[in-house]
Design a protein that fits this description.
mainly alpha, Arc Repressor Mutant, subunit A, Four Helix Bundle (Hemerythrin (Met), subunit A), 2 domains, two-stranded antiparallel ribbon, 12 helices
């Protein structure tokens, strides 16, 4: 049975999401002062503690600055926010932002080979078993969305092998942004997830322990889908 427990959202969570949408959507510009706690509580129909908790979360995310005296000013999220904001930027008002998709694709193509190089140097042959199992699962799968999930599992092992907390957190954020679009991206990603032998080639390259060899193999694996996706995004951006 595929049913899962229903997640209960606190009032402060809902307040946080509404204010976040306003800031990210541009309704509040950098430097603007938000209404005070009392006014926000009145408008949203919630308690002041719920508003206060939401604003503190906004401050921790780098989206607002809580000033002495109780005023709250909006910060430029381009300068101060972290990768955890990426999924929110990817889909706004129910529509995917092509510029954000392009950034995700470019980051994936740039970072993936570097992660592979580190994994080869730090984990080498220890990765052969889990990576081979991930490739076998991918090869046995016919569903295009499930294939992408097996590919993500493959890269999850590679990131573990790189032993870099920064790359791990980057991968987590990129995956969180990418997963909701698996259905839409399936046709473009077929040029990557259907290349089982390219995955096996990367496994072999990682096992050599040579970073440059692994990096080149990762570039070979990632380039086709990257080219297809960037061409699609360019078409979307140029559309009237």
């Amino acid at each position: 049975m595929a049913l899962r427990p229903v997640a209960r959202r606190s009032v402060s969570d809902q307040v946080f999401e509404q204010i976040l949408d306003e800031v990210v959507g541009g309704e509040f510009a950098p430097g603007d002062t938000l209404p005070n706690e009392r006014r926000l509580a009145e408008v949203l129909g919630v308690s002041r503690p719920a508003v206060r908790e939401a604003l503190q979360r906004m401050a921790q995310a780098g989206l607002v600055e809580l000033r002495h005296g109780g005023s709250t000013s909006v910060r430029d999220f381009h300068r101060h926010a972290g990768l955890d904001l990426l999924p929110r930027l990817l889909v706004r008002a129910g529509e995917v932002d092509p510029r954000v998709v392009r950034s995700v694709v470019e980051a994936r193509y740039t970072v993936g080979p570097k992660v592979a190089a580190l994994a080869a140097e730090r984990a080498a042959d220890r990765l052969r078993g889990p990576l081979s199992a991930a490739v076998d699962a991918l090869a046995a799968e016919d569903d295009p969305v499930a294939r992408q999930r097996h590919a993500l599992a493959f890269w999850d092992h590679v990131v573990d092998g790189a032993d870099s907390i920064v790359f791990r957190l980057m991968f987590n954020s990129l995956r969180t942004a990418y997963e909701p679009a698996l259905d839409v991206l399936a046709p473009a990603m077929a040029s990557e997830v259907d290349r089982v032998e390219a995955y096996r080639g990367l496994v072999g390259a990682l096992a050599t322990g040579d970073g440059a060899t692994a990096e080149n193999a990762a570039v070979d694996l990632l380039r086709p889908a990257t080219d297809v996706l960037l061409a699609m995004i360019k078409t979307l951006e140029e559309a009237p």
